[in-house]
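Title: Comparing notes on inverse folding

I've been comparing how different people in this forum approach sequence design from structure. To keep things fair, I'm posting one structure and asking everyone to reply with a full sequence. Here's the target:
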């Protein structure tokens, strides 16, 4: 079957010759947008576990126990023998450099680990932290994942991101000087955003020297500010069809070489408030692929038109 987007699993398989599985790690590093450093509220969709994106956090376990359990799970579930240590929850560059170096080293010390992925805020990196990540890149594939969510400052303010778009631009510019791959996190369906605004985020990203994106639709989880807004009638989530059409329009605008790391969210069933369809990850992916085929389209289809028109 024709691959209509540049998917992450195929990219890893090509690089390493076999399936590579990400192992999620919660290093308990906290976030300045939750602890008062920037704000005490957090992003409006972020729950107390600091995931904000469906992270399966494993509280109370050492890094070693999380990696070892994750490897065992990936072996059983997928027969995987190679892994990426993924610092997923909270802000994983939010600590002094020596602490970070030690945390990353501990996670990478297991047999079969071939990569390091670090999720963080664009306003929480500097030369020192990127230099630390870069020291691992001679031996491991290293990705840094920056939460952007939208290219509109108005939206970033509405969701209380605590940084502006410029912070992302600066972080990407600085990261480009190192041997580190860059992924941007985007959410479709944020409060106040029209489909046109979401597609502007795709055009914005297409112009950035990044290597991949993660996209999902906004969903509401328990205990978040977004839940309160939703219950008060101030917000509704995208319908599944609406999301899929917008997502495909978004993919069409991205450069063909961007690695697509995620196209759906993966909320925990016991934490989700709405929409129920967000739980059907497999069905959602099947529908996305079906619509790509029906529309006879693919990632990057409109990218060349867009760049040619400038
Ligand atoms: S930056 Fe991440 S961890 Fe921090 S409040 Fe936002 S979603 Fe939560």
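Reply #1:
Here's my take.
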């Amino acid at each position: 079957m024709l691959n209509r987007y540049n998917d992450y699993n195929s990219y890893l398989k090509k690089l390493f010759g076999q399936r590579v599985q990400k192992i999620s790690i919660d290093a308990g590093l906290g976030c300045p947008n939750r602890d008062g450093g920037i704000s005490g509220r957090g992003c409006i969709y972020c729950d107390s576990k600091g995931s904000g994106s469906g992270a399966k956090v494993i509280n109370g376990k050492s890094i070693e126990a999380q990696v070892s359990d994750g490897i065992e799970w990936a072996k059983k579930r997928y027969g995987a023998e190679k892994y990426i240590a993924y610092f997923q929850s909270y802000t994983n560059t939010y600590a002094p450099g020596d602490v970070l170096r030690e945390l990353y080293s501990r996670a990478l010390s297991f047999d079969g680990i071939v990569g390091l992925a670090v999720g963080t805020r664009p306003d929480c990196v500097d030369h020192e932290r990127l230099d630390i990540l870069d020291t691992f890149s001679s031996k491991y594939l290293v990705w840094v994942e920056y939460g952007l969510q939208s290219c509109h400052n108005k939206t970033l303010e509405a969701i209380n991101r605590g940084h502006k778009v410029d912070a992302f631009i600066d972080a990407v510019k600085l990261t480009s000087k190192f041997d580190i791959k860059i992924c941007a996190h985007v959410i479709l369906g944020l409060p106040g955003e029209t489909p046109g605004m979401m597609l502007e985020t795709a055009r914005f990203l297409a112009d950035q020297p990044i290597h991949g994106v993660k996209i999902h639709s906004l969903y509401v989880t328990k205990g978040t500010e977004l839940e309160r807004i939703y219950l008060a009638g101030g917000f509704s989530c995208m319908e599944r069809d609406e999301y899929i059409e917008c997502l495909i329009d978004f993919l069409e605008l991205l450069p063909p070489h961007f690695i697509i790391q995620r196209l759906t969210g993966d909320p925990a069933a016991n934490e989700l408030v709405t929409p129920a369809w967000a739980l059907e990850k497999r069905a959602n992916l099947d529908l996305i692929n079906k619509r790509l085929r029906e529309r006879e389209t693919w990632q990057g289809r409109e990218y060349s038109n867009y760049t040619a028109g400038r």
